[in-house]
Amino acid sequence: MTALMSKKIVGIAPMNRNKMIMSFIAEKTQALILPLVGICCFMLLWSFTASSIDTSLGKFPGPSAVATQVVNLIDEHNAERNKEDAFYIRQDQRNEMRQAKDPSYQAKVRAYTGKETFLDQIVTSVVTVLSGFLLAAVIAIPLGIAIGLSKNLNTAINPIIQIFKPVSPLAWLPLVTMVVSAVYVSPEPMFAKSFITSLITVTLCSIWPMVINTSFGVVSMNQDWVNVSQVLSLPKLVHIQKIVLPASIPAIFTGMRMSLGIAWMVLIAAEMLAQNPGLGKFVWDEFQNGSSQSLSRIMTAVFVIGLIGYLLDLAMLQLQRALSWDKSSAQR
Amino acid sequence: MSIILDISKVDMVFPTPKGDFTALKGVDLQIKKGEFISLIGHSGCGKSTVLNIVACIHKATMGGVILNNKEVTEPGPERAVVFQNHSLLPWLTAYQNIELAVKQVFKNKMSKTEMKEWIEHNLRLVHMDHARDKRPDEISGGMKQRIGIARALAMKPEILLMDEPFGALDALTRAHMQDSLMEIQQKLNNTVIMITHDVDEAVLLSDRIVMMTNGPAATIGEILDVNLPHPRNRLALAEDVEYNRLRSAVLTFLYEKQRKVEVIPKVEATESKQKTSDVA
C-alpha cells in the first residue's frame, strides 16, 4: 500500500516540475517575443510610410537610412577623435623642437577646437539635464517639505507655483539668456554661458512637479506617525529628518521622475532655440544644413533622445527601488 | 496607594460647521499607581477622546489632566501610547522603531550599549527578539502590535495608554496578546488605561472597568471594581461565579442601560490615505 502510494507521488512530482518549467518558459518567451513583435510591426509600418513620403530633401528616412547614419555618426566621432589626437601629438612635437633649439622658450599649449560630434552632443545634453535636475531637486525638496508642513506658507506660495508651472521653456529662454549674459561675467568662467542658460531653463521648468509632489507627500502623511512623533516629543528638525522625510519619500520620487522627464524635454527645446551645445543644437544644425542625409540624421537623433529619456527614467526607477521603503509605489 | 493620574472634570467641545458638538461632559476619574483601567463603551462615545486628552493629542475644553500633581499640557513619552493600528514606522525595522523612542527618551541618560541592551530587553519581553531586523510589512498584525507595545514600554512611561490595542486582531491572536499583556503586567506592574470594545478582555485584564455612557456629552456611567486575584487564567475564570457576575454587569450596562439607539453606521476614516498620486 505504502509502496504504491510512494510510487504515485514519485510519478506525479516530475510531471509537476515539467509543467512548472513549461509555464516558466512560456512566460519568459511571452515577455521577450511580444515586444519584438511590436517592434517588428512598427518597423514595417515605418519603412512603408517612409517610402511613400517625399520631401525636398529626398525620401523620408526609413529604418535602413537610420541604421546607416548610426554607423556614420560613430565613424565621424572616431575620425574627429583621431584628428584631435594627431593635433596634440603635432603640437607636442613642435613645442619639444622649439624648446630643444631655445631652452628659454615657453611652450604654448592650445586646446583643440574641432567641431563637436554627435556623441559629444549627447554627453553635453546628459550632463546639462542632470545638473539642472539636481539643482531643481536641491531647491524643490526642502521647499516642498516646508510648504507641506505649513498651511500658511502653502496658501501664500501656491498661486505662484500654479502660475509658473505651465510656462513653456521657450518663454523663459530669452529672459534667462539675457540675465545670464548680464550677470554671469567673469574673465575665466568655470562653465560656459550656454551651459548655465540651459541649466537654469531646465531647473525653472522641472522644479514644480517636485515641489508639488513633495508637499503632497508631506500633507498626506499618516496621522498616526505624526502622533508617534508627538508622543515622543521629537524636536522639529528630528521630526522632519526621522518622520516627514522618510514618510514622503515615495511621493518625492514620483515627483522626481516626472521632473526628470520634463527636464529632458525642456532641454532639447532650449538647446534648439538657443543654439546651446547639445542634442537640440544637433537637430537644428542638421535642419539648417539641409543635405540629403539631414533627415535621416535627425531621425537618428529622435531615437537617441527617446532612448536616453527612457534610460533616465529607468535609472530613476532603480534609484527609487533602492531607496524607497514603499516597494509597491516603485513598480512602474 | 497614591493617585498618579487625575482626570479632572474634563469637557470636550468640538467646533463644527453646524455649531459646537459636546463630545465629553464632566469626565472625572482618579487612577492609582499600578492600576489597570479599562474604558468601555459603544463606538463614538468618546473613549478615544479621553485617551487623546490624557496623551495631550487633544486639549480639553474645560478641566484638565494632572499627572503626579502636575498638569500636563503637551504630549510626552511619560504617557506612552499604544495605537490601535500599531503605528510603526514602515521604513524602520522593529529594532529601529524602538530605538527611535529610546534614543529620544534616554538621550543623555543611557550609554550606547545600555540602550542596545534596553531595546533588546523590551523585544524579549514581548517575545519578538527573533523579528528584531524585520520591517513592519514583513510581520503579522499581532507581531506588529507586540512591537508597538515594546516601543511604548521602552519609554518607561508613568502611565501606559492603549487605544484598542487588540481591536484589529483576530480572536485567537487577541487571546494570545491578552495573555502576553497579563504576563508583562505581572512583571512590571504598570499603570494602564486601555480602551476596549471587548467585554471579556475588560474583565480579564482590569482592576477597574470604567463604563461610559453614549454621546453626545458622554461621561462616566458606572465604575466596576474587579477583585479577581492575579494571575488570572481565562479557562479557570470561564466557570468562576464572580467573573461571570462582572461580565454580565458590563453587558447589562452596555446593552440595557446604554443601548445604542443609533442605527445608521458611522463611517470612520481609520487610516489617512497613504497614496502618492500625480497631482501636477
Task: Determine the structural class of chain A based on helices, strands and strand pairing.
Answer: mainly alpha
- Major sheet details of chain A: 2 strands, antiparallel
Helical amount of chain B: 25-40%
Count the DSSP helices of chain A. 10
Strand count, sense and barrel status of the largest sheet of chain B are: 6 strands, mixed
The string of secondary-structure elements of chain B, in order, is: EEEHEEEHHHEHEHEEHH
Roughly what fraction of the amino acids of chain A lie in strands? under 5%
Mean model confidence by pLDDT of chain A: 86
* Spatial order of the strands forming the largest sheet of chain A: 1-2
- State the total count of DSSP E strands of chain A: 2
Shape, per Cα inertia axes of chain B: globular
Shape of chain A: globular
CATH superfamily annotation of the largest domain in chain A: MetI-like
Radius of gyration of chain B: 19 Å
Determine and state the CATH class of the largest domain in chain A: Mainly Alpha
Question: How many beta-strand runs of chain B?
Answer: 10
Low-confidence stretches of chain A: 1-8
Strand order of the largest sheet of chain B: 6-7-8-3-9-10
Q: Which oligomeric state applies? A: heterodimer
What is the number of domains of chain A?
2
